Amino acid sequence: MIHWGAAGLSLTAAGVALFLLSPPNWSEFYVQRYMAGIEHHKTMGLLALVLAAAWPIARTVRRPRPGAEWERALAKVVHLGLFASLITLPVSGYLSSTLYGNGLTLSGLTVPPLLPENRALAAALHLLHKLGGYAFLALASLHTVAALTHVLRDAAAGRSAS
User: Which domain range does residue 143 map to?
Assistant: First the structure.
């Protein structure tokens, strides 16, 4: 449940961000679309951060899948990267927004900026947030390919994928 919740929220937040940041032009219509949609992006990021807090607990009760040593090592690296993304992306997004002087509005509740404005640091964190988002999508893609490979391998061997 934590896995699929975090995956759904994170991938949807990434999709919303890609959609919002690729308009054909920045006319008033697209600026308004961005302003409306970015709050959904932030809400999903915050919820994903909450789920990330529960992820280590969920990982302790799950048995590792069989596979070659290199597969298990790569899986650990990818899972660590995904977990790090679930923490660093919401935090860097929040800090970037705050340092730009923007508050955080979630479902009508507004939290004012908690840090003094610092546009240079905000820009650096925004770049980290953006590049981290692309890295997250790459890791999620690799994770999906690996999961599908296991499902197909299990099906070919006549095992149920649990």
Answer: 2-157
The pLDDT tens digits of the residues spanning 46-61 come to 888 888 888 777 767 6
Q: Which amino acid is at 149?
A: T
Give residue 81's pLDDT. 95
DSSP-based three-state secondary structure for 39:
helix
Number of folded domains that form the chain: 1
The answer to whether residue 162 sits within a structural domain is: no
Calpha distance 89→81 (Å, rounded): 11
**Which amino acid, 161?**
A
Residues 9, 10, 11, 13, CA torsion sign: positive
Provide the CB-side half-sphere exposure for 34 (13 A, CA).
13
User: How many angstroms separate the CA atoms of 43 and 105, rounded?
Assistant: 8
